[in-house]
Specification:
One of its GO terms (molecular function) is 2-oxoglutarate-dependent dioxygenase activity. InterPro entries: Phytyl_CoA_dOase-like. The protein is α+β, with helices and mostly antiparallel strands. It has one domain (23-274): Jelly Rolls (Sandwich), CATH 2.60.120.620. The chain contains 8 helices and 10 strands. A hairpin with a 6-residue loop joins strand 2 (51-53) and strand 3. Helix 2 (30-45) packs across helix 8.
């Protein structure tokens, strides 16, 4: 059952519905972010098929599914700072459909092409409707210099934008050349109508965004890392049907049981363990 606790104001909810994104400044403290970063680095260092790399290098670009393999992240996706907001914005009980940590390293982080998220979850995983959203927790200060996400505000109202797949197979959903990248003609039309915006904030901030908003990011040419921890929450009634999709669990979570707020504070519980 949904817990009727609404951390966002009506104005914040309305702003999210209109623009397709919302920034909450400094949700997590600097000490809490250090705990998150240490656990994220442990995932980057772990030899696992869940990792992806910048093309032609040994630089980790991202890692998926940590909440299925690490007790800390399994608890973190249920902290009230995230779970209660996800429930409020989706007006539903939720589960985590996908979890990933993206690392756009200083001088080395390459482009994320323009795309929508829902087309992957719909075509690859069988998610019926665009009733999902993502929370991007800033593990570093996100500025105009280190490759922030760029959105076309309001583009979620265009619905799913059908594009031809570049390659076959689920493995192509992880490559730098995105399988369902948006065309320049589509982007020109959307940007002419709605403009562009690059939400920024200090580390510990949380950026919420709709699964159908058009977004991408430029290479990180700065000397500053830009790491994001991304949690995708989906309405439990919008879960893919049993047997749908072929991607592994760490890309498309098959357990759609409604999440409950974690007992206690995992960031405080592990602070001693990681030396924060």
């Amino acid at each position: 059952m949904i817990q009727h606790s609404n951390p966002l104001t009506e104005e914040e909810v309305e702003g999210y519905r209109e623009r397709g994104f919302l920034v909450q400044e400094a949700v997590f403290s600097p000490a809490e972010v250090e705990v998150l970063k240490r656990h994220a680095q442990a995932e980057f260092d772990l030899d696992s098929p869940r990792r992806t790399f910048e093309e032609g290098t040994d630089v980790v670009r991202g890692v998926h599914g940590s909440h299925l393999c690490d007790e800390f992240f399994a608890d973190f996706v249920r902290v009230p700072q995230l779970l209660l907001v996800a429930r409020q914005l989706l007006a539903a009980d939720v589960y985590v459909h996908q979890f990933k940590i993206n690392a756009k390293r200083a001088f080395k982080g390459e482009v994320w092409e323009w795309h929508q998220d829902f087309i992957y979850w719909h075509l690859e995983d069988g998610m019926p409707q665009p009733e999902a959203l993502s929370a991007a927790v800033f593990l570093d200060d996100v500025t105009e210099f280190n490759g922030p996400l760029i959105f076309i505000p309001g583009s979620q109202d265009a619905g799913i934008i059908n594009v031809d797949a570049r390659e076959e197979g689920w493995q192509s959903t992880l490559t730098a050349d995105l399988k369902y990248a948006l065309t320049s003609e589509t982007l020109q039309t959307l940007a002419n109508e709605n403009g562009l915006v690059a939400p920024k904030g200090v580390k510990g901030s949380v950026l919420w965004f709709h699964c159908n908003i058009a977004h991408g990011s430029a290479p990180n040419m700065s000397p500053f890392d830009r790491r994001l921890l991304l949690v995708t929450y989906n309405n439990v009634d919008n879960a893919p049907a049993e047997g749908a999709g072929s991607r592994p669990d760490w890309l498309s979570n098959r357990s759609s049981a409604a999440l409950e707020v974690v007992d206690g504070d995992p960031l405080s519980r592990t602070a001693v363990d990681v030396g924060a």
